[in-house]
Every structure is written in C-alpha cells, then in structure tokens.
Design goal:
131 residues, mainly alpha, 70% helix, globular
Length: 131
C-alpha cells in the first residue's frame, strides 16, 4: 500500500515538493553560511519524494548516543532555522495539508504534509526510519 501511495504522491505533487527542497539545499550550499543546514535539507528532500511508510525521529534515539547536530549546537541551529526559514516552510506545508484534507481522498496526502511541516520546523538532529 505504501508503494501505491508513494507513486501517487510523487505524481501529484511529491516531485515538486522534493525539487523545491533540493533547490533550497543548493541555495544554502552556495551561500556557505547555510552549510550546517544542507544535510538536513537534503534529508527532507529525499523524505519528501516518498514519505509513506517512513517516519521522522531524533537521530540520538536511533543510535542511542549523542550525535553531531544534537545538544546545544543542534538547538542553536534549529532556532536559527526556525526564525529564518522553518516557520514559513512549515506554514506552507500546513496550508497545503489542510487543503488536501478537505477531500476524503486527500487525507493521507495531507497527513504527509503535516509530517513535513513538523520536520521543517526543526530539521537538525533528525533522521528518517521505516515506520
């Protein structure tokens, strides 16, 4: 079922969402100041191409130990991200998610946009795992 939903997601907007995240990651990489966020943005881009059957969790929860991007540095990077980029990216995912939840068929896709909104708020220190 996840495969069918991922194919539908990719065809009806997932490709555009993923490409938008890839372009954002490239812009961050070009600016050099944005380099600390590039791995997180590309992780979100890969996730946004096919989000069904996967979930976002803290990297420290998966590995069982402290990771780069966790702790104080990760908190600082997430706060800067939230102020300069995260809140309006998350808002865009929320608006699209609510619009998709208006129809019965769009509810699963709206839920995926809500997951993307959550990771867009604080992407540093997160990873993607099978659900």
């Amino acid at each position: 079922m996840a495969l069918v939903l991922n194919v539908l997601w990719f065809i009806f907007g997932g490709f555009a969402v993923g490409i938008a995240w890839v372009i954002g990651g490239c812009v961050l990489a070009i600016t050099i100041v944005g380099l600390p966020w590039v791995p997180s943005v590309f992780r979100i881009a890969v996730f946004s191409f096919a989000p069904f059957g996967r979930q976002v969790v803290d990297r420290a929860w998966v590995t069982g130990r402290g990771e780069p991007g966790g702790g104080t540095l990760g908190l600082l990077l997430n706060v800067v991200w939230l102020v300069f980029a995260g809140w309006y990216i998350a808002l865009a995912h929320l608006v699209v998610g609510v619009a998709q939840c208006v129809t019965l068929i769009g509810i699963p896709f709206g839920i995926q946009h809500f997951k993307l909104a959550g990771i867009a708020l604080a992407p540093v220190g997160k990873t993607i795992v099978p659900a």
